[in-house]
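Researcher: Quick test of sequence recovery. Tokens follow.
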């Protein structure tokens, strides 16, 4: 019955999602070229507020829990598990005051309305996984922007999305590179639970009545602890909530 309802509601939710991307693409261009970074960022925040709420068209819900008073005067590296494309809009919207930027695949900078444009001009890192030298250079440049502008980063250290909600082993190379250039960054794990269920039946139909939860966990001070140990701590914290 739920799958049948998914076939009915999915066209509505998916159409709304892509219509928003089309509408906000020229809005982003105008904001960036006429108003600069601040205006562009506000347009991106607003876009992701609406994208996040397309889940409600499926009868689903988004809950973002943050019980910590995170600092605004230092960069933060948000470390999250990755389950679906629905992970991203709530992270952008609810972390907006931290100027959180994403580390993304360079392939996403082409062909996707709004998203590709934001990745090009938004200040994050777009890495080519087939080119280690480019990836390291891009991360170093991004870390420099974090340090100079007091920006934050969002990284999915599993590398790929989990299709069943199980947390994959975290890779530490990306965070290690950021910390070398931006050693005062605070590490903050975020546990994403049940967003994978939105794609329980594959890419189509979407699964209705999916309750998705994002939980900010206790921050981790890097100090002199090896990065591998820091990442294992973040992974264990997230697993304790998700699995």
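Model:
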């Amino acid at each position: 019955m739920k799958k049948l309802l998914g076939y009915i509601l999915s066209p509505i939710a998916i159409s709304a999602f892509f219509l928003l991307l089309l509408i906000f693409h020229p809005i982003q261009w105008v904001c960036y070229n006429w108003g600069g970074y601040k205006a562009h960022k506000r347009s991106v925040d607003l876009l992701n507020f609406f994208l996040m709420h397309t889940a409600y068209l499926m009868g689903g819900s988004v809950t973002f829990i943050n019980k910590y008073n995170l600092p605004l005067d230092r960069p933060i590296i948000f470390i999250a598990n990755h389950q679906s494309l629905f992970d991203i809009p709530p992270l952008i919207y609810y972390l907006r005051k931290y100027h959180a930027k994403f580390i993304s695949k360079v392939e996403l900078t082409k062909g996707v309305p709004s998203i590709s444009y934001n990745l090009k001009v938004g200040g994050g890192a777009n890495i080519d996984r087939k080119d280690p030298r480019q990836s390291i250079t891009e991360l170093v440049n991004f870390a420099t922007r974090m340090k100079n502008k007091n920006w934050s980063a969002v990284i999915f250290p599993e590398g790929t999305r989990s299709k069943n909600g199980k947390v994959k082993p975290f890779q530490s190379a990306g965070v290690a590179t950021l910390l070398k250039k931006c050693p005062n960054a605070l590490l903050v794990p975020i546990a994403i639970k049940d967003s994978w269920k939105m794609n329980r039946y594959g890419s189509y139909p979407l699964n209705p009545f999916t309750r998705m939860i994002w939980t900010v966990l206790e921050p981790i001070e890097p100090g002199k602890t090896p990065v591998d140990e820091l990442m294992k701590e973040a992974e264990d914290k997230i697993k304790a909530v998700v699995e």
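The chain has six helices and seven strands.
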